[in-house]
């Protein structure tokens, strides 16, 4: 390397790498030293124009016509947005099109590029840099706010503990007072009995002396006191106090702890409307506040995959489906075999229920295990590999629908043995945490008996498809009634036959309407959005969504699982 230029990045001849080449080919866009100019120009197959290095870029590199090569294009067709040559014009292909000089088009585009460059450099990049600079503070703010919430929660917890300890101390004081009363009564009785014993001892000594005495007068004066001692002092009966602990109502305790509002994220969308001021500069107007656009539902839903399972017909109807992944699904119907399929319709695995009974519902948990309810056996079971483990065995209740929640809990709909009551129970592992059965007025939330599948929404609402009621019943995570959906208001007289139910990433609730061969989509507040009914569904039953919000639907009679795209 030339020592003179060793400390900096220098321009070199593109052929021999000689530093600081004095020439440049404006057609080929390569740098040339004087020695290599002749060699470059000798390439006769290519047009060249060698100019001094300082004048590089001054030559217009006209494009060659794609249709009439090697004719040079001097015009630009605005309608077709392509360069055209004189032959293109004379051919009539661009009649009635607006053609402009290609240098004018070049100038116009460079002006646009210059404006875009200025906007990017002066306004857009600084905006993004400013936005990026606030991210660390926002992240720190999340941690600070979380600590603030945790502190408030712990303070409330300490207050509850303090109140509970105060109540316990009060009850303890009551116990101590009763102990004192009881001991006083016993002590009083003890004193009476001891005094009587002392008197009896004296009488016995006196009688023994009389028996040993020959004094006729003294013996003759004896008067018996036995009648005085034949009756014991009055005895008291004690009814000992008992403690009857009240069953802990977790729901009320949850409410006493306090409520935590939902996280609400809104976006400030700065649509920087820019106008040119009187000096030709750029001027930015203020932005507007709006919420982020919702993911649009598709006007034309379509079936992406049509899987024919080994179910089908009246004897082997297909009911339930649950995604193990976006490519693999578990299915079950009205026999004891649960089957795993890929999207090609290939059977990957078959599992028979532990009891040989029909599984009422199936769901894949967060660990990839398959859970199922055994209606006849009153049990909830886990399939893990080749093993089946009974997680929960019910007494007096029969399980139906299953749902794994975002926090790992298990929600179960169940009927009483006499089919008079229905409730939703939340389990953590095999421990019951919550029961949801009645509203604030004490009325049942759900009809007794009948199919009831359920799903948890992204806002933690619990959504139940109550088939006999012809309704979707939604309650909050605390079990508070939110709303009931009985079909779209535009068709109030139409029947509604909800069976399967699921929710998606947008918080929308989907339920299969089997008799009407369609799916209802409602939002998280119970407002009807639209039907999925124009893609040939037949008696849809079980439904679930994958990670991309594609909908899997089982058809009870055909034994098919259809993968449906309903978002754009």
Largest sheet properties: 4 strands, antiparallel
Number of DSSP helical runs: 6
Number of domain units: 3
Number of strands: 32
What's the overall geometry?
A: elongated
Low-confidence spans: 1-7, 267-293
Structural key phrases:
four-stranded antiparallel beta sheet, 30% strand, elongated, 6 helices, alpha+beta, 3 domains, 568 residues, Neuraminidase, 25% helix, disordered N terminus
What would you say about this model in short?
By secondary structure, this protein is an alpha+beta fold. The chain has helices at 34-41, 86-91, 102-212, 216-220, 226-229, 250-257; strands spanning 23-25, 30-32, 50-52, 75-77, 82-84, 99-101, 274-276, 282-284, 297-308, 318-323, 328-333, 337-342, 347-352, 359-364, 370-374, 379-384, 387-393, 397-404, 410-416, 422-428, 431-436, 452-456, 462-466, 471-475, 481-485, 498-503, 509-513, 518-522, 528-532, 540-545, 551-555, 560-567.
Task: Present the secondary structure layout.
Elements: E1 23-25, E2 30-32, H1 34-41, E3 50-52, E4 75-77, E5 82-84, H2 86-91, E6 99-101, H3 102-212, H4 216-220, H5 226-229, H6 250-257, E7 274-276, E8 282-284, E9 297-308, E10 318-323, E11 328-333, E12 337-342, E13 347-352, E14 359-364, E15 370-374, E16 379-384, E17 387-393, E18 397-404, E19 410-416, E20 422-428, E21 431-436, E22 452-456, E23 462-466, E24 471-475, E25 481-485, E26 498-503, E27 509-513, E28 518-522, E29 528-532, E30 540-545, E31 551-555, E32 560-567
Antiparallel strand pairs: 1-2, 1-3, 4-5, 4-6, 7-8, 9-32, 10-11, 11-12, 12-13, 14-15, 15-16, 16-17, 18-19, 19-20, 20-21, 22-23, 23-24, 24-25, 26-27, 27-28, 28-29, 30-31, 31-32
């Amino acid at each position: 390397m030339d020592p003179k230029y060793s400390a900096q990045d220098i321009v070199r001849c593109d052929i021999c790498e000689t530093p600081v080449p004095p020439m440049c080919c404006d057609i080929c866009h390569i740098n040339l030293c004087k020695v290599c100019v002749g060699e470059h120009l000798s390439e006769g197959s290519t047009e060249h124009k060698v100019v001094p290095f300082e004048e590089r870029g001054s030559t217009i590199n006209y494009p060659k016509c794609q249709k009439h090569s090697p004719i040079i294009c001097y015009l630009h067709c605005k309608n077709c947005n392509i360069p055209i040559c004189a032959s293109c014009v004379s051919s009539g292909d661009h009649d009635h099109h607006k053609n402009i000089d290609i240098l004018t088009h070049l100038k116009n585009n460079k002006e646009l590029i210059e404006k875009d460059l200025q906007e990017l450099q002066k306004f857009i990049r600084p905006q993004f840099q400013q936005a990026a600079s606030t991210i660390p503070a926002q992240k720190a703010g999340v941690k600070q706010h979380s600590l603030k919430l945790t502190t408030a929660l712990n303070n409330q917890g300490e207050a509850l503990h303090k109140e509970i300890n105060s109540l316990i101390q009060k009850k303890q004081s009551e116990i101590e007072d009763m102990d004192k009363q009881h001991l006083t009564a016993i002590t009083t009785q003890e004193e009476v009995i001891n005094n009587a014993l002392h008197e009896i001892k004296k009488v016995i000594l006196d009688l023994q002396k009389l028996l040993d005495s020959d004094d006729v007068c003294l013996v003759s004066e004896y008067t018996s006191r036995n009648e005085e001692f034949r009756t014991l002092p009055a005895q008291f009966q004690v009814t000992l106090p008992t403690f009857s602990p009240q069953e802990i109502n977790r729901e009320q305790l949850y409410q006493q702890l306090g409520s935590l509002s939902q996280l609400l994220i809104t976006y400030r969308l700065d649509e920087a409307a820019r106008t040119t001021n009187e000096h030709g500069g750029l001027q930015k107007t203020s932005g507007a506040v709006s919420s982020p656009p919702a993911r649009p539902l598709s006007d034309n839903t379509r079936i992406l995959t049509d899987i024919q399972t080994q179910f089908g017909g009246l004897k082997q109807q297909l009911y339930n489906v649950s995604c193990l992944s976006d490519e693999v699904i578990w299915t079950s119907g009205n026999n004891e075999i649960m089957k795993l399929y890929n999207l090609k319709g290939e059977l990957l695995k078959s599992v028979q229920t532990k009891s040989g009974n029909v599984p009422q519902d199936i769901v894949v948990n967060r660990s990839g295990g398959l859970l199922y309810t055994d209606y006849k056996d009153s049990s909830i079971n886990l399939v893990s590999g080749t093993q089946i483990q009974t997680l929960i065995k019910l007494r007096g209740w029969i399980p139906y629908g299953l749902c794994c929640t975002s926090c790992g809990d298990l929600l179960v709909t169940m009927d009483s043995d006499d089919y008079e009551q229905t409730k939703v129970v939340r389990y953590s592992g095999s421990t019951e945490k919550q029961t949801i059965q009645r509203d604030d007025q004490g009325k049942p939330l759900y009809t007794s008996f009948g199919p009831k599948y359920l799903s948890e929404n992204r806002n933690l609402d619990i959504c139940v498809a109550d088939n006999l009621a012809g309704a979707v019943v939604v309650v909050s995570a605390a079990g508070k009634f939110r709303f009931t959906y009985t079909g779209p208001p535009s068709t109030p007289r139409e029947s509604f036959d909800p069976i399967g139910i699921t929710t998606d990433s947008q918080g929308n609730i989907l339920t299969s309407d089997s008799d009407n061969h369609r799916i209802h989509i409602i939002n998280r507040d119970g407002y009807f959005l639209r039907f999925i009914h124009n893609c040939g569904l037949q008696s849809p039953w079980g439904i679930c969504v994958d990670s991309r919000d594609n909908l899997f639907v089982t058809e009870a009679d055909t034994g098919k699982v259809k993968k449906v795209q309903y978002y754009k």
